Amino acid sequence: MSLTSLPVSTLGVPRIGPRRELKLALEAYWSGKSDAATLLQAAARLRAENWARQKALGVTNIPSNDFSLYDHVLDTSVMVGAIPDVYGWTDGPVPLDTYFAMARGSQGGGHSDTCSHGCTAHSHGVPALEMTKWFDTNYHYMVPEFTTGQQFRLASIKPIEEYLEAKALGYETRPVLLGPVTYLKLGKSKDPSLDPLSLLENLLPVYVEVLERLAANGATWVQVDEPCLALDLDETARAALRTAYGLFAKQVPQLKVMLTTYFGGLDDNLGTALSLPVAGLHLDLVRAPEQLEATLAKAPSDLVLSLGVINGRNVWRANLSQILDRLEPIVAEHGAERFEIAPSCSLIHVPIDLELETELDPDVKEWLAFAAQKIGELSVLGKALAGGRQTVAQQLTASTKAAERRTTSAKVHDVAVAARIKAVSPEMTRRFGSFAERSRLQRAALNLPLFPTTTIGSFPQTEDVRKARAAHAKGALSIVDYKAFLRRETEAAVRWQEEIGLDVLVHGEFERNDMVQYFGERLAGFAFTKHGWVQSYGSRYVRPPILFGDVSRPAPMTVEWWRHAQSLTQKPIKGMLTGPVTILNWSFVRDDIPRALACRQIALAIRDEVRDLEAAGAKMIQIDEAALREGLPLRQADWKTYLDWAIESFRLAASGVADTTQIHTHMCYSEFNDILDAIAVMDADVISIETSRSKMELLDAFRTYKYPNEIGPGVYDIHSPRVPSVEEMARLLSLARERLSDRQLWVNPDCGLKTRKWEEVRPALVNMVEAARQLRASVAEAAE
Description:
By secondary structure, the protein is α/β, with parallel strands linked by helices. The chain has a domain of 331 residues: Alpha-Beta Barrel (TIM Barrel), CATH 3.20.20. The protein is 41% helix and 11% strand. The strands form six sheets. A seven-stranded parallel β-sheet has the order 1-5-7-8-9-10-11. Helix 17 packs antiparallel against helix 18 and helix 22 packs parallel to helix 23. The longest helix is centred in the C-terminal third of the chain and has 26 residues.
């Protein structure tokens, strides 16, 4: 019987709901406005809607267990019972409050934010697990924490429950599991001598039990994600993969495994992947299109290949005819039964439905595809490859014409930007004096104390701030009244910072919706959505700007707000900007020019803003590069190329100022130790980084690497509602002093405070200032 379509898979879909229903349900629960039953009912509705949407759009292999209340890596830790003792769990079902304490930390009192639920059996006054970036994406995962001799046991049957939930609704799904080797490689131990992969033997029986239960309940396929196969692996990791999948094939032979890897090519791991006894292999053919031919040449004839040809990480509409030009001869040669059609990776990295966007420029909208549209593209490809192009001729014609119009659109290319890029010289990427010279001049000009205190930039975006912004957007609040409101909020923030004794102040960023969106809205070449949300972590969603054309800055973007704030105080107010690499990495970037060129365009626009701030009188300007590390390629051989253009772009943005102007930058929630040389080359006068969750672990490299400039290691974890004590922050500062000199150290939170509440921020910053004061006093006493 001939196929009418190649099987279509999605690998995973967005969890958050078209109108952020999951966020609303989570935050209602955390605030005590709803109970666990209400939260779980909302989650079940979202899962049912996801399955129904995929079925309607023609998906053959609908995933289950791709949904999460917070994070799929955290779900895996809970599934295998990798719950640190501090969270108080010993046996039985893992309570929601324990789950959320691992995700967000807790001040105590029985609920992760409040005791209004009356929870007493599992009260927590504990920090959250460490959080970092999921490979080279802007999604954050909760880092598994292991101990020597770690024991695992099945503590959650979520994969089985959600498979059965889908089946009861009439959907036969392919459950998704994070693979055991990737899971262990993502984890950490406080014992530096422990290799997490040494725990594989203890872990695998739990996976086998999950697979056995899935098979017993009727599952025939399971998707097991091992994105570690896109990394540089040593023989230990490869042996671990062979051990794991050999055991799965032996213990649960009736269950077929679709081994899924993404974010890059298999390269030197191809032989390992093809040696594993699995029924299917997914290939990311967007990041690494060249690997298909190499795989076909070596793959067993009965191995099903999932072809990841639609970009799961960007929003551009595919040119379907071009994809078919490549795939048609391959499918004809090897047979349609060998293949599935899929996105390059899970679709959690893109918004849900373009049809919700009624205000986008029609030309730009025609060039885009969100998750629902990408599934539609997959369906068209599946039908064309099985039944011929004539079966979907209308869709293919529309795709081709859209691609042609985008290529020739005058909205995309700007000759003035091209001329300015051509005029960039090496001198434009260098400060005038060395750091030692600049530091001497800046200390004289700023007259700051030892261990100066500051914050990263933003203060809480309260309900009043959000209401005012929404009212202004709807036309219910005039621009005059809106600006007056923002000035009052700014003044209150400045006065309060002075009151508690911070040394370097910020204006609070009440006028900004998002650190990238705010700038993108003021730069040419960007488009914005109303409903294009994607998950960053937990209930934190962002709407990435869409970078569709050449970038320039029509007018100053921040000078007015800085000038107002600085007029209120004699203390220095930092000018606050987002850096070019972060704007690039946190946007949906155009795919018709090199990323390096797009970044350089943004850098020139930010350079203009830096110089205007300095001309207005700013003595400190912070250019945040929170996303520098996450853009690092997964393979070390590719690092230098990326770092060369990324660091050059930062320096191009930052280097047009006098030596007396202090340039700050900020990076958050990434592993920096392996790129310290590149960070030093950035030559920022002061860098602030996340270190509190890792207990200053990120500073370990500074024991041997003599970082030359100044640094603010975060002492306050802003992604948790906990208020750290003075003693806790003082301990972290003591750890930092073991690695850095006193003259280098600044005192600050891990990140901006936008997502926190004032009732958390106020006591935390008061404690932070007190910790710095006590440290100054102890240093002064020791010197006497």
